[in-house]
Design brief:
Length: about 160
């Protein structure tokens, strides 16, 4: 499946409460696959509760849904902050991330900012391909994972 282009069957839509568990599971699978060296500070159930109780109801949360009704991607906006963009590992490389970034730019036409871990080189290449520039590198003391990160900014 990985690497095949998306064939019209995936839709991006606003998340509803019923999506929270599946969206959290996408986050967990994606994080573990993309960032095997980064220690998550929260247990799986804590992540699921946070996405259910905070992210979906209080943030601009979008999901990618396949033609079978499964959630295969998650994007969260908080003003100009693109705070989360995660894809199920089996769905990477099919254009869904590109569609999420286009949607984020449409929703925040004045610009976007985001953080990603310094070890996540594929994310760096992805965001740079979409016009984001690295503007700040940290030692990780400001994030829960205590992992060095980098802030990216996109301005139209």
């Amino acid at each position: 499946m990985t690497g095949e282009p998306v064939t019209g069957g995936v839709v991006l839509r606003r998340a509803v409460t019923a999506d929270a568990r599946a969206a959290a599971d996408v986050y967990l699978r994606s994080f573990d696959a993309a960032l095997p060296t980064v220690v998550r500070p929260r247990a799986d159930d804590e992540v699921r509760e946070y996405i259910r109780d905070v992210v979906v109801p209080l943030r601009e949360t979008w999901v990618a849904e396949d033609d079978g009704g499964g959630i295969v991607g998650l994007m969260v906006l908080n003003g100009e902050l693109l705070s989360q963009l995660y894809l199920d590992p089996e769905w990477r490389g099919r254009g869904i991330g590109d569609r999420f970034v286009a949607l984020a730019k449409e929703r925040s036409p004045g610009g976007l900012t985001l953080w990603t871990f310094q070890v996540n080189k594929p994310a760096h290449r992805f965001y740079e391909r979409h016009g984001f520039a690295a503007v700040e590198f940290t030692d990780g003391s400001g994030n829960e994972e205590r992992e060095p990160d980098v802030r990216y900014v996109w301005r139209p």
